[in-house]
Amino acid sequence: MPNVPWTAASGGLRLRVRLAPKSHHDGLEGCQSGSDGRPVLLARVRAAPDDGKANAALIRLIARSLGVAQSSVTLATGAGSRIKGLFIAGDADGLARTLSAAALGAARRRA
Length: 111
Fold this sequence. Notes:
alpha+beta
């Protein structure tokens, strides 16, 4: 996956996500281009965007998908926006491999 929405950072990985709240299910939907042309990981959560509930659901979803503790995932940017910047603490290479597999699996399920 040459054009991915994550980059290695000191102590972890930065991830760019487009969040779709109030969906019928929680899940990752694969990678796509955002409105600015930059790649994003599409994530859907059932929670409504009220009082940070959708953001909390996103953090739970990402943590569960990567097999890390919720405390390892922090919302860095975009608290009130559909485009979120997350930081995931841990081994950047391992996290990137897991994200790549999750995004590829999600894309296959959608096809």
